[in-house]
Design brief:
22-stranded antiparallel beta barrel; single chain
Length: 674
């Protein structure tokens, strides 16, 4: 009788679907060696919430008890994080391979992990859980060392009163040329002005976002002096998938997105369309934007994949002017489009990509300014795992950028200008001992206007125990003068030279328990050769005479208080000898994600200290606290509704002098996917 019972029990266990049973993950490196102490976070896809985390044993294995499908995120010291979706029907033992990482202080805009462990990636679903409206909004909400200027409920704008300037550790400049935006592996900026267009970085086609505080010039060159924000589009999963999201709220502010994609055999495609709009909280502050992207890819073989991606966007933004000097009928219209063609490869011991890209933009501003800019370039990057302990990568960039501009009211013609930038870079990652990891990088960048510049970086990481580690980085960053500064305005100077920065930082990371992680980073940044405007109208001059010393501290905590409660917090302190306007000396981020079973709640906020309102530093703006509440309710398997309240406590504040920000405002919407 007992034997029959055991037999039938075994049959029942074997017949159970994988989605309801325990299964096992094995984490290995590219050579197949086990990676112990790797952290695995398991997230149920139905509500985009983390259901638990485990750590691999000495054999690199861990048991998971979660119904499929799930999304797992794997992090390990010395390796790039990996995010992988595991579908029903997968084997009971799933093997995931991690690639060696570059030592650099990198903070994820969503799930902030330890610096020194490589880039951290968060999905768009996680970003949306915070109530963010744009990529820059998510960066500011969730990274303590980053701050973004804004002037209204939606729409950053451009030109004189334009906002959307993101500063990292006090470096950003205005216009925003000190922090580089990288879209799908290619630097993205306006060819004449050298700055990104923040109103184009919507969540319509953002599969993941990564932020690197500190110079990333070895990898990306100019403009990454203060850091880099990398935006990667999502990749379609097998089968057909469609998602429709729509929201509407205060001031007729709405966001509507449609994503559709499919993968069949070796071929995949995707389409993303987005529309955003607002009437604005002030008369003359309306904004409307539409964007679209399409991609097509095919696996040419087991090792090679080809893809083509195209993007288009157009926005109209109105500027009401400061309250002490309001404007009437002031607006800007911008249209941009571009494409990229890529070849990606993955072999057992080497992997990389080769990419050709191009973009073009048209700008129209009511003060008469008109411009057409373009960028065309090539980027290649290849990695080689020479031994299990030694990895080398290298690559090249060639970019030609520029355009033409004029003013139809004044009749001033700025002419047409083009510059070419070419570079080669290489990095070495060496693990001489299981506790030590060393890396060094080098870039030589040559510009047709300024000549060549050498950019090095060095890093070391030491794992004290499986729960504690320290790391240190020394890196150089630079920013080339833009065509605007060389030939356009306010006082063009064609002999300007690149700005430079040396950054020194050290990080301590602690994870005494599987549900708690703490890390602290201290840094010292020496900026020199900064481009500043001297004199008074009409005798202005741009000169390389600026300098600054930035010293700061960043602290972050992630704590899973209980299985259904996740707490995150971060603090950034900045002290500078030349602190610019709209850059706070103190900033605190905090958030609580609470899984209530049949619903999900996010309560998060940011507290910002006082900051200068103008470059002369004789006018200060007060600090403020903002709180966001987002409630999500799954109504059915593929349908959910949500409500978001911003500035919950109705605080009055200004980020840009003369532009009062809206008080409490709310929005509601739905999300449908099938």
């Amino acid at each position: 009788m007992l034997s029959q019972f055991v037999f039938f029990l075994a049959i029942i266990v074997l017949a159970m679907p994988l989605g309801a049973a325990d299964w096992q993950l094995e984490i290995v490196d590219l050579q197949g060696a086990a990676i112990p102490a790797a952290r695995i976070e398991v997230r149920g896809l139905a509500a985009s919430k983390t259901t638990g985390s485990v750590v691999t044993d000495d054999a690199g294995r861990a048991k998971i008890a979660a119904p499929l499908p799930v999304e797992v995120r794997v992090t390990a010291s010395g390796f790039d994080p990996l995010m992988q979706r595991i579908e029903p029907g997968a084997a009971r033992e799933v093997v995931l391979r991690l690639r060696p990482a570059t030592i650099r202080t990198t903070l994820d805009v969503v799930v902030k992990e330890a610096p020194g462990s490589g880039p951290q990636v968060g999905s768009a679903l996680e970003i949306e859980g915070s109530g963010a409206r744009t990529v820059f909004d998510a960066v500011e909400k969730l990274v303590p060392s980053a701050f973004v200027t804004r002037r209204g409920v939606m729409g950053y704008g451009i030109a004189t009163n334009g906002t959307g300037v993101v500063s990292i550790r006090g470096i950003g400049e205005s216009p925003n040329t000190g922090v580089l935006i990288v879209v799908d592996g290619r630097p993205d900026y306006q060819g004449l002005m050298g700055h990104p267009l923040p109103d184009f970085y919507t969540l319509s086609d953002a599969g993941s976002v990564t932020i690197t505080p500190g110079p990333a010039s070895v990898l990306y060159g100019s403009n990454a002096m203060g850091g880099a924000i990398e935006i990667k589009p999502p990749r379609p999963r097998p089968g057909l998938h469609t998602r429709l999201s729509s929201s509407l709220g205060s001031y007729l502010t709405g966001q509507h997105r449609l994503n559709h994609g499919g993968k069949f055999g070796r071929t995949y495609y995707s389409l993303a369309v987005g529309v955003a709009h607002t009437r604005g909280e002030r008369t003359g502050s309306a904004f409307r934007n539409r964007d679209a992207s399409v991609s097509l890819g095919r696996d040419l073989s087991e090792h090679w994949k080809a893809s083509l991606q195209g993007q288009f966007g157009h926005f109209h933004v109105e500027d009401p002017g400061p309250i002490q000097a309001p404007l009437v009928g002031s607006y800007a219209r911008v249209g941009r489009g571009g494409f990229s063609m890529s070849l990606d490869n993955t072999y057992g011991r080497n992997w990389g990509y080769w990419r050709v890209f191009s973009s073009v933009g048209h700008h129209i501003i009511t003060d008469g300014f008109r411009s057409v800019d373009s960028t065309i370039g090539f980027r290649g990057h290849q990695n080689f795992a020479l031994t299990p302990k030694l990895t080398v990568d290298g690559g090249t960039d060639i970019v030609r950028y520029g355009g033409r501009a004029n003013n139809v009211i004044s009749g001033l013609n700025y002419g047409e200008h083009q510059l070419t930038d070419a570079a080669g870079f290489s990095r070495v990652h060496w693990t001489p001992h299981e506790r030590w990891r060393l890396n060094a990088g080098f870039r030589y960048d040559y510009n047709s206007q300024y000549g060549g510049i050498v950019v090095p970086e060095f890093g070391v990481s030491y794992r004290l125990t499986d729960k504690y580690s320290i790391s240190a980085v020394v890196a150089k960053g630079f920013r080339n003068p833009t065509i605007r500064e060389l030939y356009l305005f306010p006082a063009p100077n064609p002999v300007l030279q690149p700005e430079r920065l040396w950054n020194y930082q050290a990080t301590f990371q602690a994870s005494p328990r599987s549900d708690l992680m703490v890390w602290v980073t201290g840094y010292y940044a020496d900026l020199s050769n900064l481009i500043v405007t001297t004199g008074r109208l009409p005798n202005l001059r741009l000169l390389n005479i600026g300098a600054a010393l930035n010293r700061g501290l960043e602290a972050n905590v992630r704590w899973r208080a209980r299985r259904h409660i996740h707490f995150t917090s971060g603090y950034a302190y900045l002290r500078s000898t030349n602190l610019g306007p709209s850059i706070p000396g103190h900033k605190v981020n905090y958030g609580i994600d609470w899984d209530l079973g049949k619903t999900w709640l996010h309560f998060g906020g940011v507290t910002v200290g006082p900051m200068w309102a103008n470059p002369q530093r004789n006018w200060r703006l007060g600090g403020f606290t903002l709180v966001t509440l987002k409630w999500t309710l799954p109504v059915a398997k593929h349908y959910s509704v949500f409500a978001t309240v911003d500035n919950l406590f109705n605080h009055r504040y200004q980020v840009v002098a003369g532009y009062p920000m809206p008080g409490v405002n709310a929005a509601g919407g739905f999300d449908l996917h099938f």
